[in-house]
Amino acid sequence: MRRFPGQALFCWLLLAASLAPLPAPAQVFSPINSPVLTLDQDKLYGETLFGKRLQSEFSQASNALAERNRELTEALTVEELQLTEKRKQVSSEEFRALADAFDEKVVKLREDQDAKIAALQRRRDLDRRIFTGRVLPILSEIVRDSGAVALLDNRAVILSADAIDVTDRAIARIDAVLGDGATEEETAPPEDKPDAKVPAVE
């Protein structure tokens, strides 16, 4: 059979194209015909890119604080042992002064670390409020587009059909609109701002 110039190359390219992975199709959701929709807020926060980033950052800060607590505990244990050894070498008055100073140091460090733990907990709550504020307009669009009049937390509903749950739909749209949420400065209501700053881990 007579071959035309380039025919073999064309066939090869056609074959390669047919074997190449196709881009994943966009997730398609069926229309919802219900005046009431439900939403799993924990799943929304846990599975959106935005929520995952906030949780990852909180986890990193929490782990760093826990590691610092372990380091302090080890250092204080060593210092306490050294202080016990000094008891044999100094007078009772000198030892009492050293022991009192050590106790004050321990109390101060504990108070500092407790304050950082409390600040970290406030940060977690603030992150959740920031997330809710950013996704609320998107959830409102979903309600409006669906022709619904209400969006309920699924924990407040005794019984409902899966067809009115828009959690997956909301996750897909939030990811498409906000991504991981890092492109826009995260702000909170003025009354929240004093609690937003977490002390550095020392």
Q: What's the arrangement of strands in the largest beta sheet?
A: 1-2
The assembly state of the depicted protein chains is single chain
Name the helix and strand elements from N-terminus to C-terminus, one letter apiece: HEHHHEHH
Return Rg in Å.
29 Å
Write a short abstract of this structure.
With 202 residues, the chain is mainly α.
Report on this model:
11% of the residues are buried. Helix 2 (41-47) crosses helix 3 (49-86), helix 2 packs parallel to helix 5 (167-178) and helix 4 packs across helix 5 (167-178). The chain has helices spanning 7-19, 41-47, 49-86, 92-146, 167-178, 193-196, and strands at residues 36-39, 150-153. The protein starts with 6 loop residues before the first helix and ends in a 6-residue tail after the last helix. Strands 1-2 form a two-stranded parallel ribbon. The chain has one domain. It is 64% helix and 4% strand. With 202 residues, the protein is mainly alpha-helical.
Annotation keywords:
202 residues, mainly alpha, two-stranded parallel sheet, 6 helices, rod-shaped
Q: What's the SSE blueprint?
A:
Layout: H1 7-19, E1 36-39, H2 41-47, H3 49-86, H4 92-146, E2 150-153, H5 167-178, H6 193-196
Parallel strand pairs: 1-2
Helix pairs in contact: 2-3, 2-5, 3-4, 4-5
